[in-house]
Amino acid sequence: MRHLNKFLGLTIAMALPILAQPPFGGRGGPPQVAKAAAPIDLTGYWVSIVTEDWRYRMVTPAPGDYQSVPMTAAAVKIADAWDPAKDEAAGDQCKSYGAPAILRVPEHLHITWQDDQTLRMDTDAGKQTRIFHFGAGKSAGGDSEAGPSLQGDSRAQWEIQRAGPQPVNGTLKVTTNHLKAGYLRKNGVPYSENANLVEYYDLVKERNGDVLMVVTIVVTDPMYLREPFIISSHFKKLADDTGWKPSECSAKW
Amino acid sequence: MTRNKTILGLAVLLCVAFPALAEIDLSGSWTSKNHEDNLERGAGPNPDDWAGLPFNDAGRAKALSFSQSTISMPERICWFQTQWHIAAGPFSLKIWSENDPLTGKINAWVLGGWETRAPMTIWMDGRPHPSKNAPHDQTGFTTGTWNGDVLTAYTTHIKTGYIRRNGAASSDQATITTTFIRHGDMLTLALVMEDPTYLTEPYILTRSYMSTPTPVAVAGPPCIVGFEGVESGRVPHYLPGKNPFVDEMDKIYHIPREASLGGAETMYPAFRDKIKDKFVMPTKCTRNCGAPGAGN
Q: What is the ipTM of this complex?
């Protein structure tokens, strides 16, 4: 019995440090800020690898080409009326560059820490900026205080995977709403202002040493989607800004 | 005694709540969300659509020689696809673990097979891959490792297969790395094929699945050979320069041949600059357009 007590005591003693971990895995004191707690490093330059949905992404698909998207009848009606010239004239040439679609655009990304609690993503295609807020506070830029916006209001959190007390891997989860209506595809496949976007950012290391960022994207929009639209995009990490080529939004290309 | 029971209960609780290594249960039925590459995974790609494939010249030449009637050869009808069919096919997944009967430790994860793909067994017990001279088959040999909650599986020893169902081939030197990333009820697979024979860069596809309470049926051999119009001994093919479908993508989608014939540069955004002045958006979708309720 004495041995059993020793064994159990040891087990509990080993487990207690795990229980003692504050949020974000700090060692006592106040919770770590998001930047310090990051289990993976998403910062740097990334390039889209377009091996999926090529003809919907690399060129502008024909009007009426809606393959793969679970559209409602209302969505088809909107999409059938797509007129890129009208969008351009109305100053809406960025409608296919909103948060639910931006990671399907062939592009380079630049991800940086704007501050300790805010991750920033810039795109060269369409010159868009997304702001991911950790915690309860807000930082300047990208928010929807003035109403719905193309990139909406994004809340971020780390999902940390541990082996014992130590983080060994993790995911960035981003939830975005307060979106201005836009297009899931360049040819007018719509999402509404009520759309909700959830993204999971994961890193995968290839055998050749390349690092991939895999983003699982879930768009929910009861108005224009019969079920959540679930896709995943992948990007390769670059050593520097080679290939970074800012370009304006285009409604036609 | 009561104190001991309390301590024991607490210890068990802690061990269950905080396993020594971060791993995650992958078992269950997973329905495939074919919201990308729906046509390519379902009915099949257009016969000359190799855009976004990092072909080398040999890979392109082999694809151009391919006739769809090849798979009607009696010698090919029961030809199982390699594990790449997970990404190129439309099917859902059934995953389970094989546990050691004494220790309960997981020896392997298994992805059930389909009628055209053999089951994938991912060995987790540290066994090495066979010698490079060992026989290859469509199943291949797969081992796995965890990185936190992410499982990475590495497959070698596969036979020649395809990487797109229109003749784009993989060689018996190809390897496949499959990463399993679970987020609650969602499972994302990232598949990377490396093939020194037919590819200049790794070819990457990612696929999404949702957990489902509806059981996914697993299937497999036997397959019965039937006559599909190709007599035994004949190998349907196209000679160089004779593939009649080589401009199909141009005709239907106005995608120029330099794009549809693939190559690593077609995977990257900069390639758009190269075809911008050659592309004219078709006025209307005429084929495989998708529509509500049409299984898209």
A: 0.90
